[in-house]
Amino acid sequence: MAGGATTERFNPKSQPSSLPRLPCDQNGSGRTFGDEELRAVSEVLEAGVLTSTKGSFVRALESEFAETIGTRHAHACSSGTSAIHAAVAAIDPEPGEEIIVSPVTDMGALTPVLYQGAIPVFADVDPVTGNLTAETIQERISDRTRAIMVTHLFGNPCDMEPIMSLAGRHQLPVIEDCAQAFLASTEGANLGTLGAVGCFSLQQGQHVTCGEGGLVVTANADLSRRLRLFINKAWGYGDPDPDHYFLALNSRMSELQGAVALAQTRKATDSVDHRVHMAELLTHRLRGCPGITPPLVAPGQRHAYWRYAMLVQPDVIPGGASALAERLQAAGVACAPHYVGKPAFACKVIAEQRTFGNSRFPFTLARDEATDYRPERFRGTHKFLEDVLVLPWNESLQSAHVEFMATSIESAATTLRDEASRVLASSVSC
Length: 430
Fold this sequence. Notes:
By secondary structure, this protein is an alpha/beta fold. It is 36% helix and 13% strand. The chain has a seven-stranded mixed beta sheet with strand order 1-9-8-5-4-2-3.
């Protein structure tokens, strides 16, 4: 799940004290915590019921979250990774079957595939948005494909109409990884409601947070039952003759988490609206900056701006994303050049197939093509990661912060271009 993959790379403490301090979602300066969360947590503690199997806050969260997203069923769990795991388990792949995934995502979206005995097959991404497309997914479909998992990177929707059409032709369920895309939408439909299952994260830096937590949503009653069972050790709570029906984990959310998440959910519409407004201000300011490409949002789509990801053209701004990031960080603007740094398939767990003991399972069941990670098969992925520069984003940003960031970006880009011009002129004169 493309959740907190770069949290550690945003370091607000590195900001010089003499410069304006930008709010940060890794502490209270960039979050909306207040009396609502405190009252809810106090109510849980006063009642003394901390488990969601007997409490009311998690149930209320599930009901209100489903209503907010616009679907029938929502199930809370312990993390965004758990949400993905429940979704994959609900699809129930056979060992060795394949799930098409993005290489630009958090490992939490991929390890559940391996834990369920399936093979993550990586499709290339669009070099501008970093998202999977119907064309790149089509190239990876085989007779072993069991499902497609799309990641709406940074909160920018994938082009879902052709993806859903492709999935329909091949009778493949689509799992939406919406960790970064709460209340993002396409043609008025919220992300997470378009595929068979939608997965959300409530980790520290997400739009809605309770520190750690997740939600998985669906409109399908049969999938809903499978999801709830998997989160609860496959124990049939409320059944006439309950049992542990299949292999599953305990990944329940506690009432304390549910209380905070419920209060956060009730604020989320306003919070996301504010993120979008501030992002549009920055995009407007950067449109005339040579070498900078602001986020591309397709007509009819709404970007939720978990982060603000722009592309830096190295042929226009010398040194590209790395050089610009160095100047911005020195100016007090936290940022992460190249986002996760490398495709997910280059991480050791996948590249070296470090799974269960020395077994390499389930990779031992994989086709050779399914684990072919040669650069020429992922030109869009490598180009995107080379050019992208990610700014942290949160609901506490104000127009003055946006102006400071825009001015810093323009100044740093101009300085890099001027320095390169002077070096070139000096070398020519010599």
